[in-house]
Amino acid sequence: METIERRSSCPINYSVEIFGDKWMLLILRDLMFNGKNSFLEFRASDEKISSAVLTEKLNLLLNEGIVFKITSPKNASKFLYLLTDKGIEMIPLMVEILNWGSRYNPHGGPKTLLEEINRNKKKAITELQDKLRSKRESLIENQNIDLK
Q1: pTM: predicted TM-score of the whole model, two decimal places
Q2: Which parts of the sequence belong to the HTH hxlR-type domain (predicted)?
Q3: Across residues 89-117, what is the average pLDDT?
Q4: Which domains does the chain have, with CATH numbers?
């Protein structure tokens, strides 16, 4: 497993070294908000990430324990990437980024989610986290995977 050599012990530095480029945030966006879980689904996003960059970023997320991968129950030659609890704990941060971006770039954004967030942010975050955990649990139920 490849690890990142840290420049310092600063918590902000730690976060930036993992999430400090657009591709990481866009992959997390797709996992959290767009229901995407496979390599091909990530590749189909509007931003057109290259296969090499996507592979590199997914491996970093795997190595950092933010996602894990399982074999697809529908296709044994396909992997699905799912958020660990460590990844799911990032949802409040991603909601804030989404909210900020929608405020200053009003030409896009998931309107339904934004309306839910504006009505009751804490509830919207909890529901999103629960939904992702439930989806994850149903996919791994029969695969004997330990998420700890």
Answers
A1: 0.86
A2: 10-109
A3: 89
A4: 11-140 (1.10.10.10)
